[in-house]
Amino acid sequence: MKITSYLPLMLVPLVAACAAQSIMPTDDCVPAPHITITPSSSAVTAVPENICAHRGDTITVKIAGNPNKGSVSTTPKVAENTWLSGSNASKATEFYLFVNDDVKDGTYKYNVNTQKGAKLDPRVTVRQ
Fold it and tell me: N or C: which end of the chain has fewer CB within 10 A?
C-alpha cells in the first residue's frame, strides 16, 4: 500500500491567502506632471481626473485659456485636507498644491471653483 501525502498541495493556497497584501488605494490614478483645468461656460474640466502624488510632491495646477487672476481655485471636499486649497490669485495661469509629509495614503476629492462653473469630483491619490 502506497501512502501519498497531500499536505504540501493543501498548504500552497493557504500560504498564498495569508501572504502580505499590498495596501494601495483602489482608484486608478494617472502619473502626470500637472493638472490642467479648463474653465468653460458649458463644463469645467480637470485633467487628469485622478492624479498620482507622493508626500513631499508639488502639484502644478495649470489653467487653460486666458484666465483672470483669482478666477480659479480648488477647495477640499473634506475641510481638514487644507493642502488641496489653492488659487490663481497671484499668477493667472497656474498655482501649486503641496502634498505635506503628514498626508496619509488615500484618494482625496476636491472642488474646482471658477467664474464659469465647477467640476465637482476630481481627485488626487497619494501613495508612498
Answer: N
